[in-house]
Amino acid sequence: MHKLTRFAFPLIVSMSLAACATGPNDPNANAKEKGAMGAAVGAIAGAVIGYQGDHSGGALRGALAGAAVGGALGAGVGAYMDKQQAEFERQLAAEQRAHQVEIERLKNENLKITMSSEVSFDFGSAQVTPAFSRTLDKVADILQRYNRSGVTIVGHTDDVGSAAYNQRLSEQRADAVAYYLEDRGVDRRRIMTEGRGEAEPRASNASEAGRQLNRRVEMIIKPDPNIQ
Question: Which residues contact 108 (CB under 8 A, 6 or more apart)?
Fold first, then answer.
């Protein structure tokens, strides 16, 4: 067996198994999994570099050093997003119970917050409603405290009206949310906006219920990958 493979492979396998060892109700499962997977990736990189520099034992030393660095970075990002998600879940609990907001953790550690346009904007308008402003106040407060996250705001519409009209409306709504967050103290450099019009429906536009699901604003919250 190649020396690099013989030294690094058992370490990488053990770290990968550790990523799967968390319980289903473990509140820190994301951080632990991210840390173990980061350690595995770091081990691979460290082993390659170490082997190239010192064939006698550099692969193993490099794998261990890479695992330490990769694990710290991975666990740091996961723990940071665990805490941020818990804040959103707590602060937006009433909106979730009313089916006005959905909070989802994505595979890449991003958070997706989906907000129904039924409470966000009046029909055909890009003016933030008073009810929506109260929700955005909570979001702005959390984003200010977790200032190592960026946010992409994405507007979506149903297919009522022309495609060009809906594209423009979706962009205007995303911009309106961005301006509101900026007014509440969130650094504008952390915010990006997109409008996707009627191009990405969640349901069929053939019914009012489907069109209601399609009218929405999404926030994709992305952590700084260098968090430790």
Answer: none
